[in-house]
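Recall that a protein's primary structure is simply its ordered list of amino acids. Everything else, from secondary elements to tertiary packing, is in principle encoded there. The following example makes that idea concrete.
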Amino acid sequence: MQASPPNAGAAAVDPLTPYLEDCRSRVLEEIQRLMPARPRHGGLLYELMLDYPLRGGKALRPALCIASCRALGGHSEAVLRTAAVLELYHNAFLIHDDVEDGSEKRRSEATLHRLHGVPIAVNVGDGMLALSMEPLLENIELVGLGRALRILQTIARMARESAEGQMMELDWVRRAHWTPSDRDYVRMVYKKTCWYTFLAPVLVGAIAAGADDATLRALARFATPLGVAFQIQDDVLNLFGDEALYGKEIDGDLWEGKHTLMLIHALRSAPPEARARALAVLAKQRPPQRGPADPELYRGEADVRFLRAQIEESGGADYALGQARQRAERARRGLRAAASSWPESSHRAFLEGLVDYVVERDR
């Protein structure tokens, strides 16, 4: 069965766009303020740090951070610097992830390592992570020592969880481990995606607003299932999305041999002969960007078409989307419980609208 078009619900996403754009504009200004005005050394480093952020993107993480703070009665000044740090982390992770995966496109343009080489790209990502430390320490002046330390502690855990989740997937690829369960996939996504895309932004925003532990736990019950749903939808878009909107290489996950819920489902549903062929394809590597590639060692167009056909024949996309929608509904219930006493505001409305956005977005 073929999945329904990922952009079928795009109209429902539009009301969130002004909020996202406003947050992105403010966060980009804050990131530029964090850059040295006249660096004595490393001018190219700071120039390239702005490459990915200025290409576009949703700025979802800083928007989540700002919305959770403001919905709880906090001021934007208390959270804007932390929101900028989250966007720095996000773009640093993207640079490193693109290198690790051999990705060719990011936000509809060539990846940083393709433009400038792997050593420079890795150093730019490292520089962005280093630049994020000082603003977190400066939070002491904005929100006080206790809240600043809790924000720093949450960001530190976010970085560790993300690295652990990435290592889980890289190790699966290294060992050609193609029998993870749905639960294994969700655990990997919880670490790799949920923590830095949803959990940390929502939690640090709430901490900046002075939220108590009960509120933080309630918000975690909203952010965690929504993070899993977000990653599943991203996996589906990678195969069935519009490349002009999606901004990344369509079928890139199949070229890279990523462990998506769709592919895991397809492999366990396939007849023995088809499964054996799929595993043989997945044992190959992504071909080099230049020069001829040995078809015995590297995946080709026919290999990727075969994997995609297995996903379509198994109904993998519909299965994955069903899982995403179940988790989105769980997130909706979690937010309803957490926000029962919050006043009506554009910030609360953004968080509520995000549930539909995650499973209906087309980019």
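Residues 145-174 form the longest helix (30 residues). The chain has one domain: 10-360.
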